[in-house]
Amino acid sequence: MKKVIITLIAVIISITVSAQDTALTFPATYVETVLDAATLQSLSRDFSVDKARRNADGTFNTRISLSYKEFDSFRALHIPYTVTPKSRAYVQMAENYAQMTTSWNRYPTYNTYLALMDTFRTRYPSLCKIDTILGNTPANHKILCAHISNNLNDNGGKPSVFYTSTIHGDEPVGYYMMLRLIDYLLSNYNTNTYVTQLVNNVDIWICPLHNPDGTYYSSNNQLNETPVSIRYNRHFEDLNRVFPEAGQQPAKSDYEPEVEAMMTFMEAHNFTLAANFHGGAEVFNYPWDTWMTWQHHHADALWWEYIGHRFADTCQHYNSNYMTEENDGVTEGGDWYVITGSMQDYHNWYLGTRHVTIEVSENKVVSSNQLPNYWGYIRSGLLHLIGEAYNGIHGTVTDSISGEPLEAIVYIANHDLDHSYVETSLPHGDYHRPIKGGQYAVTYSADGYLPKTIVTQIVDGQQLVQNVKLTKTVGIEDYENSISVYPNPAKDYITVEINGDLEIAHIALYDMQGRPVETLRATSLHTKTYRLDITNLPAGTYILHIKTANGRETLRKIIHE
Question: How much is the pTM?
């Protein structure tokens, strides 16, 4: 019934606006306009800017996606616009597995997509599993993910990479690319040296279609630009605008089903590197989306520029006119145009993953017979980007006596900020830190252990293995019962409680840049209990430093909600 009501509303609105502009097509349409930089940045916070091409005079040719819910608000701004003509792309659909894979020059129907994913699993059972991120979308589709590895049951402490595409349903070129990439990795294992190296040394996850309800909006047997496919999900929400915003404390609890499922999936995996793929431009768009560089740069901006140009240059090797927009194919997201609530920023800010957005085609939908050409342009770039997860600093953090793996923080002083530090993963205690070449002081810390700092020299494009053993701060087995810190996460107060013969000599709180929170003072409730008032501190992650009278030290990670 809900679907019927939404459809009727869309039809009614289509009839209403058609008297004013007969070119409009609802439930969603695209309009084009020319904006100055300030207006573009302002407008992009309220509407789904789909494309912005910079002109010589500093203005932007801008395309904006409007659902029927947004159209009246946009018209009220009195911005001149024209309606984008309907796509002229010739789309041929593959109705079965053989049609799709014989020449790879078609888009899949929904059932063909399911058949492809199932065939990958059954044909390569030792290399591929299919996970379900969401079993039933509002329109009864599935969001699936192929897991590719030479050991599907234990990643062996390898770095992991996550690729996902088509969060906007009418941008299916990346959807095609991800299916073709899965097939290429599986069919070339043990025959292609580089593919074999990737599958053996990187845990690979690929979700070809994040928004099936948008892609197959009109029919499970057809896709194309709006209104056949639509940018939005079935609730007419832009899924790349409704993730928790970077720098904000998540307030929503009623996330869109596709967003909530993707958040749960990403939180369950400690991904080293991730990318999501769009259409409508050709550019490597790194974080942050919600800030321009001058407002708030990413800690690893130099690394993003480095790997971004490596990706773009690889693509340009196969077509010199491909992946050349903005700064020769690479841009910081907010410098292009600001958006909030993107999946990229959520993954970077809240989970510490290096997640990038890649626009793979100037046109949202390219003609079917052109798909193999685009695959030829981007294939090597996609493979080598997976390989970037293998470079930088890698290793394990373990107990110096037992050798047991530890849950630890790997933090780089005078570099890390905004949750750019990484954490180890159990059961192996492994960590993976891609970073631009240079010299860094890397600090390893875990609850109940003395931190260790190692000065490290990193070389671009190479891997440094640095295994670290940490020593317990006290020589008793029940150390965790000696100093208790609670609650964690905390909202108003942190309590530090001491047991046994220990006495606290010093308590301090530091932000994730290593700066002391000078205004914080510990209040002694009695000789064994201290309370820290954090009511006025910004929400975020902090490091609590505790030093005992006998010179022992420990660090605890504190989450302030």
Answer: 0.79
